[in-house]
């Protein structure tokens, strides 16, 4: 009889313990974000702090901004952290997204071989693009529908240039891989500054500071209108946290000690330069 009672008590305790373990294991969200946030190391700093603060574990998927937005459309992610404003605005206008909040910015830089055969050093970005095309110098594009690729295409358009073979080459890969290919080919490329600083590949920084190179990141909540698997409460938790004081402080400090400058500038609460 005593053994039976003990067995019953153990079963009850096990049953009581399992719900406590269950939610903790299930509190996991999918973050679709860009390769720049991963390659720079920013996610490694932010995500453990978010989990500690909220109890939500994060499964990051680092792809181009265009691919991340497509994941949101299909309901395959709970929240997005991206940097392709025009594509973001189109996505939000479709009605399946929730809040779109300003998080941070950095900038793009135009890189190339130290010898600079096209003579772009110090030029405006539009003039630099025209000189690269006129010289037929190798330009290595990500070609992956990322935020960086979208900005690069807009820069060619503003420069009045239609890039093409043989000098224009696409990798279809992320920023780190594209930097390596550009270095191997002694070519030019466009990069976000954070990836350039954290993954030096033998390329020189030739054009920076142009207004056309400003690079803004937003967090976008996905809603159940995109699919039943979406967890709006997880999206809200992440959006609230990354625009909150702890995350913004971390963003502002990230990279300062190692590189002598922050890799991103926190912007939450500031006027959004890309509009609502």
Automatic annotation (TrEMBL):
<dbReference type="InterPro" id="IPR024370">
    <property type="entry name" value="PBP_domain"/>
</dbReference>
<protein>
    <submittedName>
        <fullName>Tungstate transport system substrate-binding protein</fullName>
    </submittedName>
</protein>
<feature type="signal peptide">
    <location>
        <begin position="1"/>
        <end position="21"/>
    </location>
</feature>
<dbReference type="InterPro" id="IPR052738">
    <property type="entry name" value="ABC-Tungstate_binding"/>
</dbReference>
<dbReference type="Pfam" id="PF12849">
    <property type="entry name" value="PBP_like_2"/>
</dbReference>
<feature type="region of interest" description="Disordered">
    <location>
        <begin position="252"/>
        <end position="276"/>
    </location>
</feature>
<feature type="domain" description="PBP">
    <location>
        <begin position="24"/>
        <end position="244"/>
    </location>
</feature>
<keyword id="KW-0732">Signal</keyword>
């Amino acid at each position: 009889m005593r053994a039976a009672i003990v067995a019953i008590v153990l079963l009850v305790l096990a049953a009581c313990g399992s719900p406590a373990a269950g939610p903790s294991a299930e509190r996991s969200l999918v973050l679709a974000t860009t390769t720049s946030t991963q390659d720079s190391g920013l996610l490694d700093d932010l995500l453990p702090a978010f989990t500690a603060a909220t109890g939500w574990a994060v499964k990051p998927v680092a792809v181009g901004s265009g691919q991340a937005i497509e994941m949101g459309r299909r309901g395959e992610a709970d929240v997005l952290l991206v940097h392709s404003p025009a594509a973001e605005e189109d996505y939000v206008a479709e009605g399946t997204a929730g809040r779109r909040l300003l998080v941070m910015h950095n900038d793009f830089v135009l890189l190339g071989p130290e010898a600079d055969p096209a003579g772009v050093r110090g030029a405006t970005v539009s003039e630099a693009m025209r000189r690269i095309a006129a010289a037929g110098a190798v330009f290595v594009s990500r070609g992956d529908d990322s935020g960086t690729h979208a900005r690069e295409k807009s820069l060619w358009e503003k420069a009045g240039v239609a890039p093409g073979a043989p000098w224009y080459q696409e990798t279809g890969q992320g920023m780190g891989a594209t930097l390596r290919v550009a270095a191997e080919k002694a070519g030019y490329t466009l990069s976000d500054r954070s990836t350039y600083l954290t993954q030096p590949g033998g390329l020189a920084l030739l054009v920076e500071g142009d207004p056309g190179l400003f690079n803004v990141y937003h967090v976008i909540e996905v809603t159940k209108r995109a699919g039943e698997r979406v967890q709006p409460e997880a999206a809200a938790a992440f959006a609230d946290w990354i625009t909150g004081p702890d995350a913004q402080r971390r963003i502002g400090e990230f990279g300062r000690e190692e590189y002598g400058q922050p890799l991103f500038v926190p912007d939450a609460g500031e006027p959004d330069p890309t509009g609502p």
